[in-house]
């Protein structure tokens, strides 16, 4: 349990808040989120420890840090095993008009240095509200392909009349399924409104994001 007897300083208060949230998430079996909070809380406690001169308080802090580190390590082992077994599943619910869910916010956690290939399947990418007519879209994709090529990235596009699933797969084993596909943003009110360029500030349609991990994920 997160304890509040750490002191009145801001770092102590922040540590208590974060670790309290970690314990709540842990009790709800939301282990991935709990691990992040445990790690952040432990870092804050280490800062408090550095600034503590009282030997008794130092001893108590070390015990607390050790306990939290043990729990965080157990959660990490559990999540690693879930990934190994292909059972990892995290779900994010995006509410109507919610903000803060840019592509970067959703995907950055899973895009590390091991990713060399990404596969995107979206059956409605040619809908008029996601692109315009086929010819214009083809020109746009060609321009994107040329631009990516300048940065050493190869873009390959294939069309299919039988695709129904929406999913994004990385060759490090992560797979992301978005209920609405990539088209979960609402149209900005104008070219000068907040969210026109910064997608973290653009309101979203309600949808669900499911994230899985399987080290054996391969291109289909």
Automatic annotation (TrEMBL):
Superkingdom: Eukaryota
Gene Ontology biological-process entries: cell division
InterPro entries (alphabetical): MIT_dom, MIT_dom_sf, MIT_domain_contain_protein1, MITD1_C, MITD1_C_sf, MITD1_N
Keywords: Cell cycle, Cell division, Endosome, Membrane, Transport
Gene Ontology CC, one term: late endosome membrane
SUPFAM superfamilies per the UniProt record, alphabetical: MIT domain
Record has Aminoacyl-tRNA synthetase as a keyword: no
Keyword Nucleotide-binding: no
Subunit description: Homodimer. Interacts (via MIT domain) with CHMP1A, CHMP1B, CHMP2A and IST1.
Protein name: MIT domain-containing protein 1
